[in-house]
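Following up on my earlier thread - several people asked me to post the actual chain instead of describing it. Fair enough. Here it is, all 336 residues.
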Amino acid sequence: MIIVMKNHATEKQIEDVVKWIESVGYKAHPSIGVERTIIGAVGDNRGKDVLKYAESLPGVEKTMPILKPYKLASREAHEGNTEVAVGQVKVGGPDFVVIAGPCAIESEEQLLESAYVAKKGGAQILRGGAYKPRTSPYSFQGMEEEGLKLLNQVSARTGLPTVTEVVNPADVDLVESYADMLQIGARNAQNFALLKEVGHSRKPVLLKRGMMTTIEELLMAAEYILSEGNPNVILCERGIRTFETATRNTLDLSAVPVLKGLTHLPVIVDPSHAAGNWRYVIPLSRAAVAVGADGIIVEIHPEPEKAVSDGAQSLKPEKFYQMMEELRAITAVMRH
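Reply from S.P.:
Thanks for posting it. Predicted structure:
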């Protein structure tokens, strides 16, 4: 249920409504807009009729049911677009944000060189995997905490905020102590225990679409995080599994405008994992700008042929610089 406050509602009236919502067993999620405040009341639907009584409280204009199953992620529950701060970088605002770095952290030298390439090219956020969920148990699984320490050190040297994947609920506290944003990868898009745990985190969450996940299921996954109290979620389209074998996955660019119509959360695109081949990353990145995405996350590596993970889809420095030049030209036309 959405409780719409009057234009002139005071802070005390808003606080009183929040307390009343919590007193009847629901969680209150205020959203302060330019003109008015709306408060989402989320909880067990079986007792939702009691929320209609909110209309009798001082400062309340009306109550409205939220029709979508994803209550907090829905545009009905939030006025305007959400901007998510990753360090000093805002995703979901007027700027097209580029996240770049290696798939896996391999060494201090490799990560530092990748970070300098990312920064020189104009990327705003550094990515790097310390924990790698792999299909084969014999594949490289990541440097774990040692990798997190390297990521933190490189961030301090370059000034780039960081994002890295967390794969286990037990590791959330550890990962958030080193990184500026937590990533939930495609294989964990419906790991509900993990989604709930990052919902308690103080750090923003980059939620990737699962390879077999519908748009509604992606939004319901985001709802798990939002409902636990973390409002800072960025959605990522990274390709879905289809019958096509020419690319690693099929990038669903239509998901971007669809999501933009359904949710207030920022939406970015991962062309690297979608394509599986560096040759397609630049054109797909251009398409991401054109279709209205808030940014992209791409993989770069100083020597992709020596990468321990996903070298085939990683851009060499010169190709990354080329991509960034092209994106700047397109964003100058599309977003300003």
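Residues 190 and 221 are 6 Å apart (CA to CA). That should answer part of your original question.
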